[in-house]
Amino acid sequence: MAVKNKKFLFGLKVDRQLDGDKMNREFLDKVIAEGGEGAAIAACMQCGTCSGGCTNIDLMDMSPRTLVLMVQRGEWEKVLKSNALWLCTSCYICTSRCPRGVRPADVIEAVKAIGIRQGVENDSTKFNQIFVELVEKRGILFEPELMQKYGGLQAMLAQAKLGIQLTLKGKMSPLPAKIKDPKKFSEALEKVGKQ
Amino acid sequence: MKYSYYPGCSLHTTAKEFDMSTKVVMTELGIELKELHDWSCCGGSVAAGVSHDVGMAMAARNVALAQKENLDLLASCSGCYNKSARALKALDTEAEKERITAILSEMGISVSDCNIRVRNVVDVLANDLDISPHIKKPLTGLKVACYYGCLLTRPADITGWDSPVFPMSMDKLAQACGAEVVDFRSKTKCCGGPILVSKQEVAFELTKKLLDEAKSLGADCIVLACPLCSTNLELRQPDIEKNYNVSYNLPILYITEIIGLALGIKPGKLGLNKHIVSPKTVLNKLGF
């Protein structure tokens, strides 16, 4: 069809106007079921206000606006491959500015979690997973352990000067803090993570 | 006024001066803080991106503990404040409440129906009382850039802040202390905190922009209320200087520290000797 090759038709942008039949409820529901507050994804009218305010838009291969569209269409592979997920700092500018209550930051958060469960691996997923594991372990994060587990000896050495300064100022304890019953805490959370 | 005080992971470690200054300022203003018994990490900006329910349960645990005390939860750290407020909202949603309650009960913690609120130290200082009559040593001549970052004010339906993109509460507090507040356009731009480790260069770039603007406005220091922002702006300032071959030497102070100084509290008691970027220039200017 000739229409397909045209970007605009009678002044209307073709891909937007034809989008109705491209929607994929299944993926939309999957993201909503993750439990975020992205329940209004379907309400996105592609105005781009989210992208306009985004902190890291310059570096993203897919803008928050496009990402929401891809979730609507069920283009799951594209969504999971996008570096936008890992460049998002969860700063909520997009969510605060959205005129339709779509909450792109929560959509991204839900997609991240689904992606990790589907086996997406990179520096960010590695960091996020170690962070959660360590909080689950004692209930309170021990930063030197996070650095060591994430970056190994090299990261420890790179941060050694700062670590010494902080220790001398009484701002870093060599021993980790923990909650009273870390066992119960971690068991309850590990169970959820596996579901 | 009495609050259940939730220091979070940072205030007992890298943000020690925030902990010290919060406690001493609150006491001076007649607000009682009772540290939340057996608090745990809120999961920060990271946990919910691994599993929504894990993230919510981590934050909700502290809310449930504060409910038990029947006291509003006061969090100084912006991240702890935001995530706790979000968990409180989730506990108010039927579908989420059920899931969170189930996880918490496995931990041996029950959720009660007691209505508490989650508050931030800036919010309490700006909205619950008037600090002006308590000012003993006005910070005359000090130029400050107030930096709110992201999670302190956003999203507005969770924080209920004056504005999610151009708030004034901290600016007004600094003004009440007698300081001159510069028009810091980047006051709610993100510093890149949550991606500092995994995408360091990107985070440095974001933080650099903030330091550049504050410096160009002639600010003597940046004033903030988030330990993670402080990690980027202060602890990583030497790294950023090295990376970009620039020199800032810009002190980064917590809002409670400058309020404390204005209340006439000694710098040592506020933890001002614990900074990595020395606040000496600020103290000299104020005649300490």
From TrEMBL, chain A:
Domain 4Fe-4S ferredoxin-type span(s) in chain numbering: 42-102
Iron-sulfur keyword on record: yes
Origin superkingdom: Bacteria
Keywords: Iron, Iron-sulfur, Metal-binding
One example GO MF annotation: iron-sulfur cluster binding
Pfam families: Fer4_8
Protein name: 4Fe-4S dicluster domain-containing protein
InterPro entries xref list: 4Fe4S_Fe-S-bd, 4Fe4S_Fe_S_CS, HdrC_iron-sulfur_subunit, Helical_ferredxn
UniProt cross-references to Gene3D superfamilies, sorted A to Z: Alpha-helical ferredoxin
One GO cellular component, as annotated: plasma membrane
UniProtKB/TrEMBL annotation, chain B:
UniProt keyword annotations, A-Z: Oxidoreductase
InterPro entries: Cys_rich_dom (IPR004017), HdrB/HdrD_reductase (IPR051278)
GO molecular function: oxidoreductase activity
Taxonomic superkingdom: Bacteria
Segments forming domain Cysteine-rich: 4-82, 144-233
Pfam families: CCG
PANTHER family: COB--COM HETERODISULFIDE REDUCTASE SUBUNIT B 1
Protein name (database record): CoB--CoM heterodisulfide reductase iron-sulfur subunit B family protein
Organism the protein comes from: Aerosakkonema funiforme FACHB-1375
Lineage of producing organism: Bacteria, Bacillati, Cyanobacteriota, Cyanophyceae, Oscillatoriophycideae
